[in-house]
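[Solved] Which block belongs to which protein?

Original post:
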Amino acid sequence: MDPTRKVVEVVRRLERFVPALEPPVHRMFEVQGRDHYRILVCGILSARSRDEKTVPVCRRLFERYPTPEKLARAPLSEVEEALKGIGLHRQKAKYLKEAARMLVEDYGGRLPDRLEELVKFPGVGRKVANVILTHAHGKDAVAVDTHVHRISNLLGLVQTRRPEETERELLKITPDGYKRKVNYLLVGLGQTICDPKRPKCERCPLKDLCDFYLSSVGG
C-alpha cells in the first residue's frame, strides 16, 4: 500500500478504536486541556516518565500552583516536594520554575507558536515542542516519542533508527489534517495494545497493515 494511503488508514482506524481504550495519554490531555501553562508543565513532566505516574503529579502541582506566576515564585524545595513520585523530580523542578518565569515575563503567559522558540524553554525538546504546537496552537506537527517511533517502524510506515528521523519521514507521508493526530493515537495504542514486551496483536485493528505482524505469521 502507498505510504500516504497507509498512514491515513492507520489514523482512521485508530480514531475509532483508541478513545474507547481510555489510555493514560487521554487522561494527560484532559488534565492540560488547552491552557498554555498546563500544556507546558505537562510536557516538561512527561519527558522520560510514564503518563500513569505523570498525571497525578500534574494534578497535585496545579492544585498548589494554579498559575505560572505562583509556580515561578514558589521555593524550589516546595516544588521538588510536589514532584515526588516522578523521575528526575529535582531537575524538573528547576525546569518548571524557570519555564514558568519565561512564560510570564518573556511571552505574556502565551506559548510561542514556533518550534525554534519553544525549545528555548528548559526541559522542552522537539517532541514536547511538537506536542505544544498541536495542543496549544492546533498546528499540524508530528510529535514523535518512543511509542510513535517504535510503532511506525513495526507498521512499516518508516524504516528509521532515531525518533528525529521518524519525525522527518512521517511529515513526508502524512497529509495535512492527520499529522497532529498521530501522536495521541499511536501513543494510546502503544500504552494499551502494542506493548513492547507483551503485544496483544490479535486485538489490534492494524494487524492486517502491520509489517511486523504479517511477517511473524507468514503473511
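(Second protein starts here: sequence line, then its C-alpha cells.)
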Amino acid sequence: MNWIITENNKKIDALSIPTITIEELREDLKALKLRPIGFFGKQEFENVRLYVVLADDKKGKIHISSVLFKPDVKSYNSLTKDFPQLHNFEREFYEDFKIEPKNHPWLKPLRNNQKDYPFFVMQGEDIHEVAVGPIHAGIIEPGHFRFMCQGEKIYNLEIMLGYQHRNVEKLMLNPNNRLAESICGDSVVGYNMAFSEGMEALSDTVISKRACLIRRIALEMERIAIHIGDMGAISGDMAYLMGANVFATTRTLVINTMLEISGSRFARGLIDVGGVNFDIDNEMASKIKTMLNEVLEIVHRCAKIMLKKPSCISRMEQTGTVSKETALSLGAVGMAARSCAIGLDSRFDFKDKYYTKYSTAKKLEETGDVFARFKLRYKEIIQSIQFINYFLDELKNNKEEIKTTPNDLSANSFVVSITEGWRGEIVHCIITGVNSEIIRYKIKDPSFNNWYMLSMAVRNNGISDFPLCNKSFNLSYCGCDL
C-alpha cells in the first residue's frame, strides 16, 4: 500500500508512512486525483524525506506518503506541469533542500529572494512597470508587487514576499499556545485551534465538549469580525464611505465582546492545549446573543443597500474575476475558492460534528469577482451567527470543566490538524521523534494557495482597481513568510 489513510486530528505512526519513488508518486497523483495540502521535507541524516499529504474532501479522509531522496539525488522531474496545484509547494521544497524540480514552469525563489530576483519582463514601447512595496503605508506588512502595464491596463502582476524571515517553523519545535496564536495576527483563534487540536491528538488528550464549543464560538466570532472589517475596507476602496464607516463600527462590537470574554479583542490567551482559559456563563451568552442580533441587523441593512446600489455594483461586478477553472488549477482554498463555486470548507468536508450536527451547507458564489467575494462574506457572517447561537444554546446545560491537563506527546507520531479559518484551511503537520520531541512542524496558511489568485484576478483590469481586488482577497503576508 502506497498511502496511509487517516483523518483530521488523528494520530498515526510516523514510521509506518510508506516510502515510494517520485515516479510512483506521479502515477498515484494521476490515479487518486486528490488535492495536495502538504508537500514538505525533513532532513534524515544525509537523506531528505519528502512528505506528501493529500485531502480527499468528498470522503473527509487524508492520504499520506513519502519519497526518500538520497544524498546523490539533486533533482527530479517536476510534478507541476501535470499538477499545477503543486507549483508553490515545489518551489518551497527546492528553496529549503536544494533538490531541483526540473522543468518547473516558474522556478523562482519563494521567500529567500531579495537579491537579483528574476522578475518577469515584457517588451514594447507602451509597456511600463509599476512597483509597490516592500514598504507599504499603514499597517500593511512587507511585500513587493511588480505590475507590467500597457497604459492603465495590467498585463501581469508578480508578487514577491519573504522580507520578514521569522523562522516560525523552527520556533515551533519548542511550541506553546502564545507562539501559535502569534503566527498570523488576524487569525489568532484559527491558528491556535490548529496547534492545540494537533497537540491534543498527539498526546491522546480529550477535552470537554464545553471547551470545544467555546473554541468554535471564538472561531466564528473571528470570522464575523474579519469579514465585516473586509466589507468595510472594500467599501472604502470604492469610495463608498458610508459602508466603510458603518462596517468598521460594527466590527468593533464583535471584537469588544471578545475582549469581555478573554481580555483580548483578538482572543489571545483564550485557547490552551487541554481546553480554554475563559468560560462563557449564561450572562455572557446572553450578551453575545444580543450583540449578534444588533450586528446582524446592521450588516443586513448596509449590505442590502450596497447590493442594490448601481455605483457599488458597477465597481464590484466583473472586477477582479477569476474563473473556476483557473481557481481549480491553482489550488485555491477557502472563501477565494468558494467565490468561484468550488465547495471547499474543512468544517464540513472533514465532518466536524459540532457543525455538521446543524448544517453541512457551504456558502458559494459563482462569478469569482469582487462582487462574489463581497456577497460571500455577507452570507458567511449570517451563517456564523447562526452557528454561534446553536453553540451558545448547547452551553446552557453543560456543566463540564473547561480545561484539563494534557498528557505527554507520543513518540514517532504524525498528525495533520486542519482548521477552517476565515481565509480558508489552516494546515499544521506535526511529527514527533523517538523521545516524543517535535522534530518537524509544517504550517500552510490559505494565502500560500491564494496569492496567485490575486495575480490572475488583476489581469486585464485597470491598475486603479488593484486596491479593490487586493482587499477583496485580503491575503496574509506573514502567513506565507514563515
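Accepted answer:
You had them paired correctly. Confirming on the second one: The chain has a mean pLDDT of 96.
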